[in-house]
Amino acid sequence: MLLRFTKMHGLGNDFMVLDLISQHAHIQPKHAKAWGDRHTGIGFDQLLLVEAPTSPDVDFRYRIFNSDGSEVEQCGNGARCFARFVVDKRLTMK
Fold first, then answer.
1. Average pLDDT of the chain?
2. Taking a C-beta distance cutoff of 8 angstroms, is the pair 4, 43 a contact?
């Protein structure tokens, strides 16, 4: 699987951000765990996914995986990086 990604840093945490609107992939916990390994993967604290919206009222869907593959609801530093990413990539005009 060949994917374009962005590596971001925020207040001591590092993130891998995947835009899954402009490219398509089905990301599973095993991918986050493999990519999150700092010795054999890319290495990150969390994987941030930008996905197609599931509701017409929003521009995208936001998902977060820890480097151990577990999916979590929120991360403050990740949210800051995510907001910067979607604005820089013009994925939202809000």
1. 93
2. no
